[in-house]
Amino acid sequence: MDLWYTENHQEDTKFSIKVQEHIHSEKSEFQQIDFFRSETFGTFFTLDGYMMVTEKDEFIYHDMITHVSMAVNPNIKKVLIIGGGDGGTAREVLRYPGVEVVDMVEIDERVVRLCQQYLPLTASKLDQDNRLTLYFEDGLKFVQEADEGYYDLILVDSTDPIGPGEGLFTVAFYNNCKRVLSEEGILINQHESPYYASYAHEMKRAHSKIKETFPISKVYQFHMPTYPSGHWLFGFASKKYDPIKDIKADEWNKLGIETKYYNTDLHVGCFMLPTYVKKQLDNEE
Amino acid sequence: MDLWYTENHQEDTKFSIKVQEHIHSEKSEFQQIDFFRSETFGTFFTLDGYMMVTEKDEFIYHDMITHVSMAVNPNIKKVLIIGGGDGGTAREVLRYPGVEVVDMVEIDERVVRLCQQYLPLTASKLDQDNRLTLYFEDGLKFVQEADEGYYDLILVDSTDPIGPGEGLFTVAFYNNCKRVLSEEGILINQHESPYYASYAHEMKRAHSKIKETFPISKVYQFHMPTYPSGHWLFGFASKKYDPIKDIKADEWNKLGIETKYYNTDLHVGCFMLPTYVKKQLDNEE
């Protein structure tokens, strides 16, 4: 028997992975959760059928959501992670000895529990570090109620802006992020993709909102082969730091944090976007 | 009826596009050639079932194979294109008024003729510019017989190193490229991909050969969504030019060549590779 997982990247474009085992399937309060095992990608899981994390390329996503901000401000102490139930983002943040507080707000506790069970590669640090506090709450509500100026860094590790992730792409959310960030504060958000029309639409919407909220708002790219088109983006927004001019490359490299994707040259390179992406972000096309 | 084109990126990984029409199918002397039409990608064609060119993202590949070298040496006059039967590389090269000679050596005349018929977006310049000469020959043989030091630029726009493209990944070929290049000479080659094991293997093999042949040998990356993993590479090799230190950004920008993917910031950025790719290229993993 052949068993294939398929994601429709567009209505007429499919990406499929042969499945060795459908490890787990359940409908939580918020979404459909499935875990699979494949030869090429190892264990991977999907939410509502959309690819979230594979063992083969999770290092790319988690390197890029975390280390860019930490190299701009290696003195970050208080971090808020919104989403990120697989634990990979928390794992990377917790590698910094200077980080004192990590609050992780994941709406769906089942994602965390299942990743702890099936994806120890990403989730194993979630119960091993007393700097981390897990909140199973709505991220939008959490930032509404958080103290002004408390966090140095917010990492929005969300799904696409449909389903539970929708509120994390709103002006209300971005405004609250700005409010709870310190003057040194940096916001990194999952910024969708420029290639397929439906994703590019969400990318433009998100960027126009963040651009209005933060004085500095840039976008950086990376190669994420298991996401639609493989061309994925994060947003970097801050009150005072420019991600390129203000990189502390020497300071970051002295920390000795070994990474498989990120490095401080790539840090600069990843903000150099293709012309068609720049035009989309500037609303010129 | 649903008709889907599928390419196996690995044995257990498939990419599929819904086909509106299978426009053409033939077996040439060298390979199986198929043309299709799809809603998202427009017209696309495959050789031996492997995706070559789609109307949607050909600009990415052709921008990146051409403009990086031209921005390093805007005085390039004599260009050799090996492969590139779709005509997209020739189209981009011929946009430079300073280019005097373009010799294009494609082993399979049928690819050129069919692209002229079905892909005018890439092929339409192939019979419109008297600076261009088409040779339907083996590229390996052509460079063996070409004059020493004649070309300023060689663009190897080849298929993967199986089938007709195999000879273009050999030491004999790279040595002949070096011989027929001028002292200002630059070689750009299709450099495969770092993500899936089978492609990474070919990437490493190609790089180790070129590194031994040319004093300067770098690799740059781009996002090519219809190729396996979407993470694709070109090699930049030369006798004296460093692709970053020697970029003539102002001079290139003054030419006023409009591009959808390439720009002189991206030029610098695209050489900043992920750590795991650098390690593979340095034979450290």
UniProtKB/TrEMBL annotation, chains A, B:
**Which catalysed reactions does the entry list for this protein?**
S-adenosyl 3-(methylsulfanyl)propylamine + putrescine = S-methyl-5'-thioadenosine + spermidine + H(+)
Task: List ligand-binding residues for S-methyl-5'-thioadenosine.
Answer: Q31, E106, D138, G139, P164
Q: How does it assemble?
A: Homodimer or homotetramer.
Would you tell me the protein name for this molecule? Polyamine aminopropyltransferase
Q: What does this protein do?
A: Catalyzes the irreversible transfer of a propylamine group from the amino donor S-adenosylmethioninamine (decarboxy-AdoMet) to putrescine (1,4-diaminobutane) to yield spermidine.
The record's NCBIfam families line, in alphabetical order, gives:
PRK00811.1 (NF002010), speE (TIGR00417)
- EC numbers for this chain: 2.5.1.16
The kind of enzyme this is, by top-level EC class, is: transferase
Q: Which domain of life is it from?
A: Bacteria
Q: In which pathway does it act?
A: Amine and polyamine biosynthesis; spermidine biosynthesis; spermidine from putrescine: step 1/1
- PROSITE patterns of this UniProt entry? PABS_1 (PS01330), PABS_2 (PS51006)
Q: Which organism is it from?
A: Gottfriedia luciferensis
Active site per UniProt: D157
Start and end of every PABS domain? Answer: 2-239
HAMAP family hit by this protein = Spermidine_synth
Where along this sequence does the record place binding of spermidine?
Answer: H62, D86, D157, S158, T159, D160
Q: Which PANTHER family does the entry mention? A: SPERMIDINE SYNTHASE, SPERMIDINE/SPERMINE SYNTHASE
The record's similarity note reads: Belongs to the spermidine/spermine synthase family.
Alphabetized InterPro entries for the sequence: PABS, PABS_CS, SAM-dependent_MTases_sf, Spermi_synthase, Spermidine_synt_N, Spermidine_synt_N_sf
